[in-house]
Design goal:
This protein is an alpha/beta fold. Strand 9 and strand 10 form a beta hairpin. It has 20 helices and 24 strands. The radius of gyration is 24 Å and the shape is globular. The strands form five sheets. Strands 6-11-7-8-9-10 form a six-stranded antiparallel beta sheet, sandwiched between helices. A six-stranded antiparallel beta sheet has the order 17-22-18-19-20-21. The chain has a five-stranded parallel beta sheet with strand order 2-1-3-4-5, with helices on both faces. The protein has five domains: about 120 residues, Rossmann fold (3-Layer(aba) Sandwich), CATH 3.40.50.2300; about 70 residues, no CATH class; about 120 residues, Rossmann fold (3-Layer(aba) Sandwich), CATH 3.40.50.2300; about 100 residues, no CATH class; about 70 residues.
């Protein structure tokens, strides 16, 4: 596999003199580094630079770091970016080692050139993490971890003594306790009872950190309709001031255009008054609005038309928003749709269910209307930014998992572009060559295993957490291994992938008795596969244990084994059949 490119880093520090030297050191080692010294410029700096990682200088409990984390968490486009904090007190380092978003690393101050290699390594490692942390702790350590959740503004679920009569569970939104239960106690009383245990096994799973389709999502609870100021980006009056070391003649990237009459939005709600109100609101802001009155209808409408985004109610009859979301995410034809949810109740349990299925925002129906419109526009921003770059003929680094591999291929086809798409996720490296909008060559490499043609094309469509680039221009002399129009290839890929998923759901997961293992791909899976599934994968691949026996062997739910099996089959590690 190819190595990751050097990260783009934004430093956030109040000490301009120190940052000047640090930026120079990063740039001398070929790493693009810029900084801001005003906490009000954090959001503007992120929009201008689009960094892979933030380097924040200060103590975790300091007002400066807390305000920076607050600024990040209030913005859909920024909240998922990993943060490394340079501080004197690194006692929380063990708490952040498995995290994928928010604070992912602590470095001991002062910053030295030796830290640069550590920062690069953290950038490469974060995408392979599980988004969770676990261990055994006494009451004092557990208290410290809960304080860490509060200080770092994390969202997720803390569980102690799972699957025992003493199981306790607490959920947090941006560091604030939302719900907790333990031995009949609830809320803060339950947390206090948790902390009285002399010893407990604990695990924490961040909302934004899993490898599933829920990765990178953000909960946006919003403000109620009062006279208060809504949650918004930090206002920066001189946001266009060049960041330190910026090349003076380098043009500043123009902001993406606001949605216009081509932006298609699907609204799904069982309340006709709500549908009418939001249809009027979004039409006024330049959207073309379609509506559906429940989840079943919403799913069918989404299959029939190409939408840019979906805004849906969580609580609906027949098929609720969560059920509709699962249907959309499980069907490859609609799995890339940006989706936001509205609910009349700020119920974190429902929001977690939505996030696990792949929602990208969760809004209260009490949120101010202009804020709701703004958050939907933010869902469209990654795609609009890429389109602006393509129009200007720029070679672009692309967070492919954010915009969607299908959507990217369609845009290149519609614009008749020539060039090469390269992509890498935790599993494989992909390369697709285009000539005047036609994808004529595809290859994928996972360890020693290589696939070409439609197999590689389909693997790219199914890829997750992919980062890559599109380099426009003449392609290298590659043999043609794809012979259909790009749109047709995408449709065929979705059909084939959907058929695979259907077969697994209908029979093979339960009735399969014969397992064939690709040894090369299994070796790769042992290195990069999700850690929580490795023991199940070992039983399946090494001991050739059928899925139904693995369920009985391990203390896990059938759904966990189903997801593990789907992942193994999707990656080509195993194939199943009936003997």
């Amino acid at each position: 596999m190819t190595e990751l490119k050097a990260p783009v880093i934004l430093g956030i520090d109040e000490d301009r003199t120190a940052q000047t030297a640090i930026a120079q050191a990063f740039n001398e080692q070929g790493i693009f580094y810029r900084f801001v010294t005003d906490r009000r410029k954090v959001t503007g700096g992120i929009k201008q630079l689009k960094p892979h990682l933030l380097l924040v200088f200060g103590e975790l409990e300091s007002d400066f770091v807390i305000q920076v984390l607050d600024a990040l968490s209030s913005d859909v486009g920024s909240a998922q970016r990993p943060v490394v904090v340079v501080c004197n007190d690194t006692s929380d380092a063990s708490f952040v080692q498995g995290m994928r978003t928010g604070v992912v690393g602590l470095l001991t101050a002062p910053f030295t050139p030796a830290h640069i290699g550590v920062v690069r390594a953290l950038h490469e490692e974060v995408s392979t993490r599980t988004g969770s942390s676990a261990g055994t702790a006494d009451a004092a350590t557990l208290f410290r971890f809960i304080e860490h959740i509060r200080r770092t503004r994390r969202s997720g679920v803390l569980v102690t003594n799972a699957r025992t009569p003493n199981e306790a569970r607490a959920s947090f939104i941006y560091g604030k306790l939302d719900k907790a239960s333990f031995l009949g106690a609830h809320g803060q009383d339950a947390v206090n009872a948790m902390l009285k245990q002399p010893q407990a096994r604990w695990s924490f799973s961040e909302v934004a950190g899993s490898h599933s389709e829920g990765a990178g999502v953000v909960i946006e609870v919003g403000d109620t309709v009062t006279g208060e100021t809504p949650i918004a980006e930090v206002s920066v009056t001189d946001e266009d001031e060049p960041l330190a070391f910026e090349v003076p003649h380098q043009p500043v990237e123009p902001p993406p255009p606001a949605p216009n009459n081509g932006t298609q939005l699907l609204l799904v709600d069982d309340d006709p008054a709500i549908l009418k109100m939001f249809s009027t609101l979004f039409t006024k802001h330049g959207f073309v609005v379609s509506t559906a009155t429940d989840g079943n209808e919403g799913f069918e409408v989404a299959l029939q038309h190409e939408f840019d985004a979906v805004l849906a109610d969580l609580n609906m009859p027949h098929l609720d928003g969560w059920g509709m979301l699962r249907s959309l995410r499980e069907d490859f034809r609609t799995r890339e749709l940006p989706i936001a949810f509205l609910s009349a109740h700020d119920d974190y349990r429902e929001s977690l269910r939505a996030l696990d299925a792949g929602a990208q925002a969760y809004l209260s129906k009490g949120t101010k209307l202009d804020v709701i419109v703004g958050q939907v526009i933010k869902l469209l921003e990654p795609r609009r930014t890429l389109l602006a770059n393509l129009e200007m003929g720029r070679t672009s680094e692309i967070a492919i998992h954010t915009i969607g591999p299908q959507w990217l291929l369609r845009q290149l086809s519609q614009r008749g572009l020539s060039g090469t798409v390269t992509c890498r996720d935790g599993w494989a490296a992909y390369s697709l060559a285009f000539n005047q909008g036609t994808c004529f060559h595809a290859a994928a490499v996972a360890g020693k295993y290589t696939a070409e043609g439609e197999r590689a094309f389909n693997a790219f469509i199914a890829s997750r957490a992919g980062e890559g680039a599109f380099v426009e221009g003449p392609t290298p002399a590659l043999s043609q291994n794809l012979f259909l129009a790009t749109e047709v290839l995408v449709e065929r890929a979705c059909s084939a992938l959907n058929d695979n998923e259907r077969r697994m759901r209908e029979s093979l997961m339960v009735t399969a008795t014969h397992i064939e293992v690709n040894a090369d791909l299994y070796a790769v899976y042992c290195q990069v596969g999700p850690k929580q599934w490795l023991e199940a994968a070992r039983l399946i691949c090494e001991e050739k244990m059928p899925p139904r026996e693995v369920i009985g062997k391990l203390d896990v739910s059938p759904l966990d084994i189903e997801e593990c099996m789907k992942d193994l089959i999707r990656r080509g590690v195993v194939s199943l059949s009936k003997s």
